[in-house]
Amino acid sequence: MEKKEIIGILKQVSEGNLTVDEALLQFKTAPFEDLGFAKIDNHRSLRQGIAEVIYGAGKTPQQIAEIAASMLANGQKTVLITRLNKESAEFVSIKIPLQYYETGNIGIAGELPEPDGYGKIVIATGGTSDIPVAEEAALTAMALGNGIIRLYDIGVAGIHRLLEHADDIMSARVIIAVAGMEGALPSVIGGLADCPVIAVPTSVGYGASFGGLAALLSMLNSCASGVSVVNIDNGFGAGYLASMINHIGAE
Question: What is any one GO biological process for this UniProt entry (predicted)?
């Protein structure tokens, strides 16, 4: 939406020809920016509360750089890029300022916001091998304005490691539990916490884990109440959902 269109809508509101709600609807349904290879939804944060995120896998480094640059130029202060490999990150960082986090394959262009959520998001992993998915969740949550606590390698094979952090678990606003193998961690955490638990199955495990399917089914069949499940290795989806929950009531 161009400046003159925005001014025109605001003028109609001031003259009483358009209600505030009607004006807000027009802003929410404003056109996207067409780059030819991508149509950028610059008004998504107005409609959904969270701006558009770039999924880096399958895009060329040039495409990622152009999309991110356009978002920044249109006023988006934080641009989150998921599934960004090191080679693409090196190219993009030449074009725009970029912080790259290799463990989580995450790039953040622009400013990392101060936490403005209601409480803390705890990100827990069963093992060290689950950390890349957990970091995708953690960095997503941070980019969306949340304070986080990392509790890594506290799986059920050594349950005392988890119980050592009972205070963090019981005081969290939301918990993201990331695990492969048999995927038992979310059920155990769900039995300790009074907040929503988002379970993330990972593809970590031996042959019968079927690339994370065994963990996914275990989590879907959890006997602990309040456990929801996202897709295999979907740290981004978990971080996004946790942020939405953590911002309920924050305003």
Answer: 'de novo' IMP biosynthetic process
